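Example (one chain per record):
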Amino acid sequence: MAADRDGSRVALTAARLLAVVATALAALAVVLPLVSGLGYLEQLVRTPEAVVATSFSITGALLVPHPPARRMGWLLLGVGGASAVYISALSWTAYALGGDDSAVLPAGTDLAAATAWVASWAWLPSWLVVSTVLPQVVPHGRPLPARGWRWSLACAAVVGVVGVITIALTPGPFDFFPGIDNPLGVEAVGPVAEVVQPAVQVGMAALLVVAIASVVVRVRRADGVERRQVGWVGYAVALTVLAIVVVPSGWANLVVLLVPAGIAVAALRYRLYDLDLLVNRTIVAVLLVAGAALLYVALVGWVGALVGTSEGAVPFIAAFAIATAFHPARVRLQRLVDRLLYGLRGDPYALIQAVDQSLREAATPREALAAGVATVRSGLRLRGVSVLVRMPDGSEVEERAGEAATAVAVPLELHGRQVGELRVAQAAGRDAPAADGPAPPTGADARALQAVAGPLSSAAYAVRLSGALEESRTQLVKAREDERRRLRRDLHDGLGPLLAGVVMALDVVRSALARGDGDRAAELSGAAAEQARSAVTDVRRLVADLRPPALDDLGLVGALKALVSTLTAGGPEVEVQATGRLDELPAAVEVAAYRIAAEAVNNAVRHSDASRVYLSLSAGDTRLEVHVRDDGGGLPAELTPGVGLASMRERATELGGWCTIETTTGGTGVRAWLPYDALPAPIDELPPADRNEEVRQ
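Predicted structure:
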């Protein structure tokens, strides 16, 4: 482990040293014509090596410390170093020739001849790596897995070595400096070079096509965040290569910046190489240094204008003012850059406020959920966010913002149950999926998602409640129509014919009496009376189906005691306990409680093999709790819910309550919670004046 750290430290030091040397050589090459006054700077800017040496070296030095980017970092450093060698050799040779490319090299300048020799071939390695190697290994420094792509890299190495050797040993004047002969030229290489150099050019062109094709293949094979990473870096390299070939030479100095720019965009937006934090801090540092420098100059000039001098204590005052404002400015600037790069991820409180505001301004629960999802996506700069709500009827409701969000799932829980699921597509390229599945959110991402889970849970619960309410309304309408249909059928098919028969019998009785046939009249009147008694029985049955008469005669507790006495004859003992004001319950609550308790007790008596059943009723100011439990064997492992269990739940749901069935080692329990409006205070608890008013009413 220590050896690995030491090796990484040495590599980092070497990378920084190489970047400094390459940048210094490029800067010296550009400064030399300005200082000497020879005016060959235009010759240097025709080729982009000065910009490549600086930008590629700095970018490579920044990438080397990060393991995923280490190979790309060393490749960029190699390109930057080779470009620095070329541009410095080119500048030194032009300086020795006095700024004239075609001038004959003066005697005694062997060092300049050596630099001309280096400049003749030093451009080839950097150009070969940029045009044929980088496109095939973006973004992590590895070629495509197929063997053919690796062969193309081997061919590029062969072409590079052959090309450099051929150029370095070809006799005669150099192409860039006709006034200088190759000091290391070999006559025997001349004829060979005439054949090899065109072959090298053809090989480089073919490798260029292969390299660009590899970028296209890699983008097509990649998916999601990786595709965007490859796209930004790969297309930046490919466009750089193509632009250098076709655009005028002066514009190439700007075109080569596409490579570090593509890496920067991929790092910031799609977290390539995990460089977003480094880029964040770099932006803050650059802005602070630039702002401090400008402010210092402005303060010195302003204070100097006031006091008439810019010397003495004026610089000290300006420096003290900048030092005093530095920390607050850094904090505010850091917050601004974080907001720019990461949205509200670093400020969960502001994110919660934004989500809460969007939820409160929505017109319906469904619109509130959609607005909350959109706010989370924009606030966290995510590619996609969705919330999936499973409705009570088994259906699913999904609100989505952005792309399909399936990478990371965060459960939304409220009141001890899961009401939905927050699905997040990878956060703008952060936390790329692992090989075995999506990586869970960590750090600021996890804190931000947990912060918004609360408001979104409330919105998802509201959607569930609205769905349950709509379903209950539908069920109520259906139940009402079913009840009306049943009553119509019973009245039409049962009570109607009986009453019609009574009317017809009475008509016949009247006719018989008119004829003086008393026996016939007596017989028919008895039949009519029997039909009338049957009609009365049907009416009582219909009334009992609508509302048990025992509730009106005995009250809820008395009706249940009378019911269980008939259900448990010769069976388990049933104990009924009641607390609270059960004599003032709403009629609908009474009926629901009676039906639920009756069904639960009946199930316990018939199926539980219990010796004792407990029925308790507890009435509060706004709800009635019904609890039925037994000491039987509990529910079977493979239970198929029947009509009775579903009926109990439906009766509780119709009133906005709930009903649960649970089993333990000590038996089975049914618990129902039935809400209602607040009951009026009892007369004996009212103040004297209100009590008298209540009595008068």
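Caption: The chain is about 65% helix and 10% strand.
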